[in-house]
Amino acid sequence: MAASVGRICRAGLLKSPHVPTINQFSSLSTTREWTKGRKALLGTIGMLAGGAGALLLALDRSVRASDLELHPPKHVWSHSGMFSSLDHASVRRGYEVYKQVCAACHSMRFIAYRNLVGVTHTEEEAKAEAEEQMVLDGPNEQGEMFKRPGKLSDYFPSPYPNEEAARAANNGAYPPDLSYIVSARHGGEDYIFALLTGYCDAPAGVVLREGQYFNPYFPGGAISMAQALYNEAMEYTDGTPATASQLAKDISTFLKWTAEPEHDDRKKMLMKAIGIFSFLMAITYYIKRMKFSTLKTRKIEFRPKEK
Amino acid sequence: MGFNETVYNLIFKRTSTMALACVASAFFFERTFDLVTENLFEKINEGKLWKHIKDKYQQ
């Protein structure tokens, strides 16, 4: 690659700019044969399209600037790197936070206990977690629904039977399902972290209704979820000091995992793809050079027709 | 007889041996490549994967 780039540059640097060359290039242009009217028409269309694009961009930017919303700062997560996996100890602590704090209002309908096996829990632990909850199953032989302890194949229990019940219990605000929340919000895990740690007193002029709280990171500022994470709000089983920011960091990592369970495999696959494709690139380049070698070492002679 | 000639006569000369060589080398290449990348990935993420922390939770 370097050799051919050098060759191109050297040729370009050594060649003196001929005026005939420039003429030749200009004669390649197809716009010379256009009529004046056609040139004017196409020019106008181009300017209008460019202007419309610029206007749309400007409108989009101005809308963002006028939002009553603070954009979350970017944090350096332990999984931010190109090849960095999730911190599974943190994901495990995040599950504890979800179970003890978030699960009181938020459902997680798309994650089953079996998904925890080999990610945050051993099979026995995941089974024990599942058995803690009672699941409605049935019908049995009498046609009645019955309750049974959860199994690995059961999904996480929802705190409310349906959206209406959730709204009725929360002043009309629906606590969103948290399964894919990191992918569903601008800013991803940075947003979740900023939202959970960003509660503050409402500034003067902001009117909050009954059951609303102020959070600058929430679009609009008025959020119906009260601050949930405080220092020592719960205890970790692994003895990590449960500060509010630690809780927020762990739940954000956990939610990142629930939204992208394939995260680690994807990054491992990226590594393999880079390896294989750089190998294939090298082979392709070699074959190209080989095939072109006959063409490039050939001499072409121009002989004018003798009269 | 040099190395290249030996290889040519034994493998590349016949389509049957050539095809066999392709399949065999693909098998070994894939195994080694997978092992190398997986080890590298685990080295980069030392202490973060489930594999590294599971001993804490198993009885």
What does it look like?
The complex is a heterodimer of chains A (307) and B (59). With 307 residues, chain A is mainly alpha-helical. The radius of gyration of chain A is 32 Å and the shape is extended. Chain A has a domain at 67-88 and 97-108 and 176-263: Cytochrome Bc1 Complex, Chain D, domain 2 (Orthogonal Bundle), CATH 1.10.760.10. Chain A is 48% helix and 4% strand. Chain A has ten helices and four strands; from the N terminus they run H-H-H-H-H-E-E-H-H-H-E-E-H-H. In chain A, the strands form two sheets. Chain A has a two-stranded antiparallel ribbon. Chain A has helices at 2-14, 19-28, 36-66, 88-100, 123-131, 163-169, 181-184, 188-197, 244-259, 263-296; strands spanning 134-137, 146-149, 213-214, 222-223. The model of chain A has no long low-confidence stretch (mean pLDDT 89). Chain B has 59 residues and is an all-alpha fold. The longest helix of chain B is centred in the middle third of the chain and has 30 residues, at 15-44. Chain B has one domain (3-57): Single alpha-helices involved in coiled-coils or other helix-helix interfaces, CATH 1.20.5. Chain B is built from three helices and no strands. The interface between A and B is medium-sized, with 25 and 18 residues. Chain A: Its main location: mitochondrion. Chain A: It comes from Acanthoscelides obtectus (Bean weevil). Chain A: Residues 89-259 form the Cytochrome c domain. Chain A: Keywords: Electron transport, Heme, Iron, Membrane, Metal-binding, Mitochondrion, Mitochondrion inner membrane, Respiratory chain, Transmembrane, Transmembrane helix, Transport. Chain A: InterPro entries: Cyt_c-like_dom, Cyt_c-like_dom_sf, Cyt_c1, Cyt_c1_TM_anchor_C. Chain B: It is found in: Mitochondrion inner membrane.
